[in-house]
Write a structure and sequence with these properties.
This protein is α/β, with parallel strands linked by helices. It has 13 helices and twelve strands.
Length: 393
Protein backbone atom coordinates (compact mmCIF):
# COMPACT_ATOMS: atom_id res chain seq x y z
CA UNK A 1 0.00 0.00 0.00
CA UNK A 2 1.17 3.53 -0.72
CA UNK A 3 1.41 6.67 1.37
CA UNK A 4 0.15 7.62 4.82
CA UNK A 5 -3.47 7.08 3.76
CA UNK A 6 -2.76 3.39 3.30
CA UNK A 7 -4.50 2.77 0.02
CA UNK A 8 -3.52 1.20 -3.29
CA UNK A 9 -4.17 3.48 -6.22
CA UNK A 10 -5.01 1.52 -9.38
CA UNK A 11 -6.75 4.24 -11.38
CA UNK A 12 -3.81 6.02 -13.01
CA UNK A 13 -5.67 6.34 -16.32
CA UNK A 14 -8.11 8.65 -14.53
CA UNK A 15 -5.43 10.89 -13.03
CA UNK A 16 -2.00 10.71 -11.43
CA UNK A 17 -0.37 12.49 -8.49
CA UNK A 18 1.92 15.34 -9.49
CA UNK A 19 5.53 14.33 -8.92
CA UNK A 20 7.68 16.25 -6.45
CA UNK A 21 10.02 17.69 -9.09
CA UNK A 22 7.04 19.08 -11.00
CA UNK A 23 5.55 20.79 -7.97
CA UNK A 24 8.93 22.28 -7.06
CA UNK A 25 9.34 23.64 -10.59
CA UNK A 26 5.88 25.24 -10.45
CA UNK A 27 6.05 26.89 -7.03
CA UNK A 28 8.20 29.96 -7.89
CA UNK A 29 5.69 30.97 -10.57
CA UNK A 30 2.88 31.06 -8.02
CA UNK A 31 4.65 33.59 -5.80
CA UNK A 32 7.82 35.57 -6.54
CA UNK A 33 7.85 35.01 -10.33
CA UNK A 34 4.18 35.86 -10.77
CA UNK A 35 4.48 38.27 -13.71
CA UNK A 36 2.16 38.22 -16.71
CA UNK A 37 4.18 36.86 -19.67
CA UNK A 38 2.63 39.51 -21.95
CA UNK A 39 4.05 42.43 -19.92
CA UNK A 40 7.46 44.01 -20.52
CA UNK A 41 9.10 44.33 -17.10
CA UNK A 42 11.59 41.97 -15.45
CA UNK A 43 9.36 39.52 -13.57
CA UNK A 44 7.12 39.26 -16.63
CA UNK A 45 10.14 38.37 -18.74
CA UNK A 46 10.93 35.52 -16.33
CA UNK A 47 7.43 34.15 -16.84
CA UNK A 48 7.71 34.44 -20.60
CA UNK A 49 11.05 32.62 -20.54
CA UNK A 50 9.49 29.85 -18.43
CA UNK A 51 6.68 29.42 -20.94
CA UNK A 52 9.19 29.29 -23.81
CA UNK A 53 11.23 26.67 -21.96
CA UNK A 54 8.15 24.51 -21.36
CA UNK A 55 7.18 24.85 -25.01
CA UNK A 56 10.61 23.57 -25.99
CA UNK A 57 10.33 20.67 -23.52
CA UNK A 58 7.00 19.53 -24.95
CA UNK A 59 8.18 19.97 -28.53
CA UNK A 60 11.28 17.85 -27.89
CA UNK A 61 9.17 15.12 -26.29
CA UNK A 62 6.99 14.63 -29.39
CA UNK A 63 9.40 15.50 -32.21
CA UNK A 64 7.82 18.87 -32.98
CA UNK A 65 8.96 22.48 -33.29
CA UNK A 66 8.27 24.81 -30.33
CA UNK A 67 6.28 27.02 -32.72
CA UNK A 68 3.84 24.14 -33.16
CA UNK A 69 3.04 23.78 -29.43
CA UNK A 70 0.01 25.55 -27.94
CA UNK A 71 -0.93 25.32 -24.27
CA UNK A 72 -4.53 24.64 -23.25
CA UNK A 73 -6.52 23.93 -20.09
CA UNK A 74 -6.42 20.17 -20.73
CA UNK A 75 -7.09 17.37 -23.16
CA UNK A 76 -10.77 18.20 -23.51
CA UNK A 77 -10.07 21.74 -24.67
CA UNK A 78 -7.34 20.49 -27.00
CA UNK A 79 -9.73 17.98 -28.59
CA UNK A 80 -12.48 20.58 -28.94
CA UNK A 81 -10.11 23.10 -30.45
CA UNK A 82 -8.59 20.67 -32.94
CA UNK A 83 -11.92 19.33 -34.17
CA UNK A 84 -14.02 22.50 -34.15
CA UNK A 85 -11.16 24.66 -35.32
CA UNK A 86 -10.33 22.41 -38.26
CA UNK A 87 -13.99 21.91 -39.15
CA UNK A 88 -14.83 25.59 -39.46
CA UNK A 89 -11.50 26.62 -40.98
CA UNK A 90 -11.90 24.09 -43.79
CA UNK A 91 -15.65 24.28 -44.34
CA UNK A 92 -15.09 25.73 -47.81
CA UNK A 93 -13.47 22.41 -48.79
CA UNK A 94 -16.08 20.11 -47.29
CA UNK A 95 -18.14 19.17 -44.25
CA UNK A 96 -17.28 15.50 -43.64
CA UNK A 97 -15.42 14.28 -40.53
CA UNK A 98 -14.30 10.73 -39.76
CA UNK A 99 -13.86 9.37 -36.24
CA UNK A 100 -14.42 6.08 -34.41
CA UNK A 101 -17.07 4.65 -32.12
CA UNK A 102 -14.60 4.26 -29.23
CA UNK A 103 -13.29 7.81 -28.90
CA UNK A 104 -13.28 9.71 -25.62
CA UNK A 105 -16.43 11.76 -25.05
CA UNK A 106 -14.36 14.92 -25.53
CA UNK A 107 -14.24 13.88 -29.18
CA UNK A 108 -17.63 12.19 -29.56
CA UNK A 109 -19.64 14.97 -27.95
CA UNK A 110 -17.75 17.50 -30.07
CA UNK A 111 -18.54 15.70 -33.32
CA UNK A 112 -22.17 15.25 -32.23
CA UNK A 113 -22.36 19.02 -31.69
CA UNK A 114 -20.85 19.63 -35.12
CA UNK A 115 -23.52 17.44 -36.69
CA UNK A 116 -26.06 19.95 -35.37
CA UNK A 117 -24.08 22.67 -37.16
CA UNK A 118 -24.46 20.92 -40.52
CA UNK A 119 -21.36 18.71 -40.58
CA UNK A 120 -21.52 15.06 -41.51
CA UNK A 121 -19.68 12.56 -39.32
CA UNK A 122 -18.76 8.94 -39.97
CA UNK A 123 -18.27 6.84 -36.83
CA UNK A 124 -16.09 3.90 -37.82
CA UNK A 125 -16.61 0.51 -36.15
CA UNK A 126 -13.84 -1.39 -34.37
CA UNK A 127 -12.94 -5.05 -34.10
CA UNK A 128 -13.36 -7.12 -30.94
CA UNK A 129 -10.15 -5.62 -29.55
CA UNK A 130 -11.32 -2.03 -30.06
CA UNK A 131 -9.00 -1.52 -33.02
CA UNK A 132 -9.79 0.79 -35.96
CA UNK A 133 -8.91 -0.56 -39.41
CA UNK A 134 -6.79 1.81 -41.54
CA UNK A 135 -8.57 0.46 -44.62
CA UNK A 136 -11.91 1.45 -43.13
CA UNK A 137 -10.52 4.97 -42.83
CA UNK A 138 -9.41 4.92 -46.46
CA UNK A 139 -12.79 3.71 -47.66
CA UNK A 140 -14.64 6.32 -45.62
CA UNK A 141 -12.74 9.29 -47.06
CA UNK A 142 -14.62 11.23 -49.74
CA UNK A 143 -13.91 14.41 -51.68
CA UNK A 144 -15.81 16.25 -48.91
CA UNK A 145 -13.72 14.86 -46.02
CA UNK A 146 -11.80 17.55 -44.14
CA UNK A 147 -10.72 15.79 -40.94
CA UNK A 148 -9.92 12.36 -39.53
CA UNK A 149 -9.72 12.14 -35.73
CA UNK A 150 -8.73 8.77 -34.23
CA UNK A 151 -7.31 8.37 -30.71
CA UNK A 152 -3.78 7.03 -30.27
CA UNK A 153 -4.69 4.71 -27.39
CA UNK A 154 -8.05 3.96 -25.82
CA UNK A 155 -8.62 5.28 -22.32
CA UNK A 156 -10.80 2.36 -21.21
CA UNK A 157 -9.29 -0.78 -22.70
CA UNK A 158 -5.77 0.41 -23.53
CA UNK A 159 -5.74 -0.65 -27.18
CA UNK A 160 -3.08 1.21 -29.20
CA UNK A 161 -4.35 2.24 -32.63
CA UNK A 162 -2.42 1.93 -35.93
CA UNK A 163 -1.90 5.68 -35.99
CA UNK A 164 1.05 5.79 -38.40
CA UNK A 165 -0.92 3.90 -41.07
CA UNK A 166 -4.04 6.01 -40.57
CA UNK A 167 -2.01 9.21 -40.67
CA UNK A 168 -0.29 8.11 -43.87
CA UNK A 169 -3.62 7.44 -45.55
CA UNK A 170 -5.02 10.80 -44.48
CA UNK A 171 -1.90 12.60 -45.71
CA UNK A 172 -1.95 10.79 -49.06
CA UNK A 173 -5.56 11.85 -49.55
CA UNK A 174 -5.05 15.45 -48.44
CA UNK A 175 -7.09 15.23 -45.24
CA UNK A 176 -6.09 16.66 -41.84
CA UNK A 177 -5.38 14.05 -39.19
CA UNK A 178 -5.86 14.66 -35.47
CA UNK A 179 -5.18 12.17 -32.68
CA UNK A 180 -6.18 12.29 -29.03
CA UNK A 181 -2.92 11.18 -27.37
CA UNK A 182 -4.06 11.91 -23.81
CA UNK A 183 -3.49 8.31 -22.65
CA UNK A 184 -0.41 7.76 -24.82
CA UNK A 185 1.84 10.77 -24.22
CA UNK A 186 4.39 10.11 -21.52
CA UNK A 187 3.72 6.36 -21.63
CA UNK A 188 4.64 5.27 -25.17
CA UNK A 189 6.85 6.82 -27.83
CA UNK A 190 5.18 9.66 -29.72
CA UNK A 191 6.75 11.33 -32.76
CA UNK A 192 4.41 13.49 -34.79
CA UNK A 193 6.52 13.19 -37.93
CA UNK A 194 6.94 9.42 -37.87
CA UNK A 195 3.22 9.02 -37.13
CA UNK A 196 2.05 11.46 -39.85
CA UNK A 197 0.10 13.58 -37.38
CA UNK A 198 -1.22 17.08 -38.11
CA UNK A 199 -2.73 17.78 -34.69
CA UNK A 200 -2.28 16.02 -31.33
CA UNK A 201 -3.89 16.49 -27.90
CA UNK A 202 -2.13 16.00 -24.54
CA UNK A 203 -3.25 16.28 -20.90
CA UNK A 204 -0.72 16.96 -18.13
CA UNK A 205 -2.35 15.08 -15.27
CA UNK A 206 -2.09 11.73 -17.07
CA UNK A 207 1.71 11.64 -16.65
CA UNK A 208 2.18 13.07 -13.16
CA UNK A 209 1.78 16.69 -14.18
CA UNK A 210 -0.75 19.23 -12.86
CA UNK A 211 -4.47 19.04 -13.55
CA UNK A 212 -5.94 21.76 -15.74
CA UNK A 213 -3.03 21.72 -18.18
CA UNK A 214 -2.89 20.48 -21.75
CA UNK A 215 -1.28 20.89 -25.14
CA UNK A 216 -2.48 20.98 -28.71
CA UNK A 217 0.20 20.32 -31.29
CA UNK A 218 -0.71 22.06 -34.54
CA UNK A 219 1.52 21.21 -37.48
CA UNK A 220 2.71 23.96 -39.77
CA UNK A 221 0.39 22.91 -42.59
CA UNK A 222 -2.77 22.55 -40.48
CA UNK A 223 -5.46 25.14 -41.13
CA UNK A 224 -7.37 25.72 -37.90
CA UNK A 225 -9.49 28.51 -36.40
CA UNK A 226 -9.10 29.68 -32.78
CA UNK A 227 -11.47 28.29 -30.17
CA UNK A 228 -10.77 31.02 -27.58
CA UNK A 229 -11.04 34.65 -28.72
CA UNK A 230 -9.59 37.65 -26.94
CA UNK A 231 -5.97 38.67 -26.54
CA UNK A 232 -2.89 37.84 -28.59
CA UNK A 233 -1.58 34.99 -26.41
CA UNK A 234 -0.26 31.78 -27.98
CA UNK A 235 0.60 33.62 -31.17
CA UNK A 236 -2.98 34.93 -31.60
CA UNK A 237 -4.43 31.41 -31.61
CA UNK A 238 -5.49 30.82 -27.99
CA UNK A 239 -6.53 33.89 -26.01
CA UNK A 240 -6.23 34.22 -22.23
CA UNK A 241 -3.45 34.95 -19.78
CA UNK A 242 -1.14 31.97 -19.68
CA UNK A 243 -1.29 29.57 -16.72
CA UNK A 244 2.44 29.91 -16.14
CA UNK A 245 2.75 27.50 -13.16
CA UNK A 246 0.69 24.89 -14.98
CA UNK A 247 2.64 25.32 -18.20
CA UNK A 248 5.92 24.95 -16.31
CA UNK A 249 4.49 21.83 -14.66
CA UNK A 250 3.33 20.08 -17.83
CA UNK A 251 6.63 20.82 -19.56
CA UNK A 252 8.67 19.41 -16.69
CA UNK A 253 6.39 16.38 -16.23
CA UNK A 254 6.51 15.39 -19.89
CA UNK A 255 10.28 15.88 -20.08
CA UNK A 256 10.78 13.58 -17.07
CA UNK A 257 8.25 11.02 -18.29
CA UNK A 258 9.93 10.71 -21.67
CA UNK A 259 13.41 10.51 -20.11
CA UNK A 260 12.30 7.60 -17.91
CA UNK A 261 9.93 5.99 -20.40
CA UNK A 262 12.01 3.03 -21.54
CA UNK A 263 12.73 1.69 -18.08
CA UNK A 264 9.46 2.70 -16.41
CA UNK A 265 7.20 1.41 -19.18
CA UNK A 266 9.04 -1.92 -19.15
CA UNK A 267 8.61 -2.20 -15.37
CA UNK A 268 4.95 -1.25 -15.47
CA UNK A 269 4.22 -3.57 -18.41
CA UNK A 270 5.75 -6.42 -16.41
CA UNK A 271 3.38 -5.73 -13.53
CA UNK A 272 0.50 -5.43 -15.99
CA UNK A 273 1.22 -8.86 -17.44
CA UNK A 274 1.39 -10.44 -13.98
CA UNK A 275 -1.91 -8.81 -13.04
CA UNK A 276 -3.62 -9.97 -16.24
CA UNK A 277 -2.34 -13.52 -15.86
CA UNK A 278 -3.49 -13.85 -12.25
CA UNK A 279 -6.88 -12.21 -12.72
CA UNK A 280 -7.68 -14.35 -15.75
CA UNK A 281 -7.27 -17.40 -13.51
CA UNK A 282 -10.66 -16.41 -12.07
CA UNK A 283 -13.28 -18.48 -13.98
CA UNK A 284 -15.48 -16.68 -16.53
CA UNK A 285 -13.17 -13.68 -16.69
CA UNK A 286 -12.18 -12.08 -20.00
CA UNK A 287 -9.57 -9.51 -21.03
CA UNK A 288 -10.84 -6.45 -22.88
CA UNK A 289 -8.65 -4.71 -25.44
CA UNK A 290 -5.81 -5.98 -27.58
CA UNK A 291 -3.66 -8.61 -25.83
CA UNK A 292 -0.41 -7.17 -27.23
CA UNK A 293 -1.01 -3.73 -28.74
CA UNK A 294 -2.05 -2.14 -25.45
CA UNK A 295 -0.80 0.55 -23.10
CA UNK A 296 1.80 -0.69 -20.61
CA UNK A 297 -0.31 0.35 -17.61
CA UNK A 298 -3.79 -0.83 -18.64
CA UNK A 299 -5.72 -3.88 -17.44
CA UNK A 300 -9.41 -4.07 -18.32
CA UNK A 301 -11.35 -7.24 -17.62
CA UNK A 302 -14.95 -8.34 -17.40
CA UNK A 303 -16.38 -10.81 -14.88
CA UNK A 304 -19.52 -12.68 -15.81
CA UNK A 305 -22.51 -12.76 -13.42
CA UNK A 306 -21.57 -9.69 -11.37
CA UNK A 307 -21.90 -5.91 -11.54
CA UNK A 308 -18.99 -3.48 -11.71
CA UNK A 309 -20.32 -0.84 -9.34
CA UNK A 310 -20.48 -3.44 -6.58
CA UNK A 311 -16.90 -4.49 -7.32
CA UNK A 312 -15.72 -0.89 -6.91
CA UNK A 313 -17.56 -0.38 -3.64
CA UNK A 314 -16.19 -3.57 -2.13
CA UNK A 315 -12.66 -2.89 -3.36
CA UNK A 316 -12.88 0.60 -1.88
CA UNK A 317 -13.59 -0.95 1.51
CA UNK A 318 -10.35 -2.86 1.03
CA UNK A 319 -8.46 0.38 0.27
CA UNK A 320 -8.19 -0.25 -3.48
CA UNK A 321 -9.00 2.56 -5.95
CA UNK A 322 -10.19 1.28 -9.33
CA UNK A 323 -12.68 2.06 -12.09
CA UNK A 324 -15.36 0.39 -14.19
CA UNK A 325 -14.36 2.44 -17.23
CA UNK A 326 -13.30 6.01 -17.95
CA UNK A 327 -13.37 8.25 -14.89
CA UNK A 328 -15.20 10.96 -16.85
CA UNK A 329 -18.27 8.72 -17.16
CA UNK A 330 -17.84 6.38 -14.18
CA UNK A 331 -20.92 7.86 -12.42
CA UNK A 332 -23.10 6.86 -15.37
CA UNK A 333 -25.06 3.62 -15.26
CA UNK A 334 -25.05 3.33 -19.05
CA UNK A 335 -22.91 0.49 -20.40
CA UNK A 336 -19.50 1.48 -21.74
CA UNK A 337 -19.75 2.70 -25.33
CA UNK A 338 -16.26 1.29 -25.90
CA UNK A 339 -17.15 -2.23 -24.82
CA UNK A 340 -20.45 -2.02 -26.71
CA UNK A 341 -18.52 -1.17 -29.87
CA UNK A 342 -16.27 -4.19 -29.23
CA UNK A 343 -19.36 -6.39 -29.38
CA UNK A 344 -19.85 -7.27 -25.71
CA UNK A 345 -23.46 -7.64 -24.52
CA UNK A 346 -24.69 -5.11 -21.91
CA UNK A 347 -25.20 -7.68 -19.17
CA UNK A 348 -21.51 -8.65 -19.37
CA UNK A 349 -20.25 -5.09 -19.83
CA UNK A 350 -21.66 -4.14 -16.43
CA UNK A 351 -19.16 -6.56 -14.88
CA UNK A 352 -16.11 -4.71 -16.18
CA UNK A 353 -13.17 -3.53 -14.09
CA UNK A 354 -10.31 -1.25 -15.13
CA UNK A 355 -7.06 -1.34 -13.16
CA UNK A 356 -4.33 1.04 -14.31
CA UNK A 357 -0.82 0.86 -12.89
CA UNK A 358 1.38 3.80 -11.95
CA UNK A 359 4.83 4.86 -10.81
CA UNK A 360 4.19 3.87 -7.20
CA UNK A 361 2.70 0.43 -7.90
CA UNK A 362 4.73 -2.51 -6.54
CA UNK A 363 4.60 -6.28 -6.90
CA UNK A 364 3.19 -6.47 -3.37
CA UNK A 365 0.39 -4.15 -4.48
CA UNK A 366 -0.38 -6.45 -7.41
CA UNK A 367 -0.58 -9.47 -5.09
CA UNK A 368 -2.87 -7.60 -2.71
CA UNK A 369 -5.13 -6.45 -5.54
CA UNK A 370 -5.39 -9.94 -7.05
CA UNK A 371 -6.20 -11.51 -3.69
CA UNK A 372 -8.95 -9.00 -3.00
CA UNK A 373 -10.40 -8.97 -6.50
CA UNK A 374 -10.65 -12.75 -6.35
CA UNK A 375 -12.41 -12.57 -2.98
CA UNK A 376 -14.79 -9.79 -4.04
CA UNK A 377 -15.75 -11.55 -7.27
CA UNK A 378 -16.48 -14.77 -5.44
CA UNK A 379 -18.52 -13.01 -2.77
CA UNK A 380 -20.62 -11.21 -5.37
CA UNK A 381 -21.15 -14.37 -7.38
CA UNK A 382 -22.31 -16.19 -4.25
CA UNK A 383 -24.88 -13.42 -3.75
CA UNK A 384 -26.16 -13.36 -7.34
CA UNK A 385 -29.13 -15.55 -8.36
CA UNK A 386 -27.70 -15.66 -11.89
CA UNK A 387 -24.51 -17.45 -10.91
CA UNK A 388 -24.45 -21.11 -12.00
CA UNK A 389 -23.82 -23.72 -9.25
CA UNK A 390 -20.33 -24.58 -10.47
CA UNK A 391 -19.12 -21.01 -9.79
CA UNK A 392 -20.47 -20.83 -6.25
CA UNK A 393 -18.50 -21.61 -3.11
Amino acid sequence: MTGDNRFIYMDNAATTPARKEVVEAMLPYMSENFGNPSSLYGIAKKSAEAVDNARAQVASAIGASPKEIYFTSGGTEADNWAIKGAAFANRDKGNHIITSQVEHHAVLHTTEWLEKQGFEVTYLPVDKYGMVSPEDVREAITDRTILVTIMMANNEIGTIMPIAEIGKIAREMGVLFHTDAVQAAGHIQVDVNELNIDMLSISGHKFRGPKGTGVLYIGKMAKIDPLMHGGAQERHRRAGTENVPGIVGIGKALELAVAEMDSESKRIAGLRDILIQKILEIPKTHLNGHPEMRLPNNVNVVFEYIEGESILLMLNRRAICASTGSACSSKSLDPSHVLMACGLPPEIIHGSLRLTIGHDTTEDDIDYVVENVRGVVQKLRNMSPLTPPELRE
